[in-house]
Automatic annotation (TrEMBL):
This is DUF4440 domain-containing protein. The lineage of its organism: Bacteria, Pseudomonadati, Pseudomonadota, Gammaproteobacteria, Enterobacterales. InterPro entries: DUF4440, NTF2-like_dom_sf. Transmembrane segments: none annotated. Residues 17-105 form the DUF4440 domain.
Length: 122
């Protein structure tokens, strides 16, 4: 099931693999861009450098995953996150692209602070 596959790939970036340079090179599309929770646009190299420089990565919890297939090999994944301490609630969107070889890569990601905590489940 595509939803589960992309959910696992997405969540790999919330855990130990977010500091794995080989994994980041594999999973982030060469043209990757992100709009961060704070509204800053960053490219692939900036994202990788930022993740690799994290001293203590926050434990991120995710819920309410929704998938929209946008055509052959393109998908939009939307979900909610928050830190284990209950802070930093965010709405997130990720655009994924599947290569001819069947490898999904993250093309675009945006995190937006959530207006409230309604509907968030652990």
């Amino acid at each position: 099931m595509l939803l589960e596959k992309l959910r696992l790939l997405e969540c790999s970036l919330h855990g130990d693999r977010r500091n794995d340079p080989e994994w980041l090179e594999l999973i982030l599309h060469p043209e990757f861009r992100e709009i961060t929770r704070s509204g800053v646009t960053v490219d692939r190299s900036e994202t990788i450098a930022s993740l690799l420089s994290e001293k203590a990565a926050p434990y991120i919890l995710s819920s309410d995953f929704r998938l929209t297939e946008m055509g052959c090999g393109y998908a939009l994944l939307r979900y909610r996150t928050f830190y284990a301490d209950g802070s930093h609630h965010a709405l997130r969107s990720s655009c994924w692209i599947c290569s001819d070889e069947g490898q999904w890569t993250l093309f675009f990601h945006q995190g937006t602070p959530a207006a409230g905590n309604a509907g968030v489940q652990g």
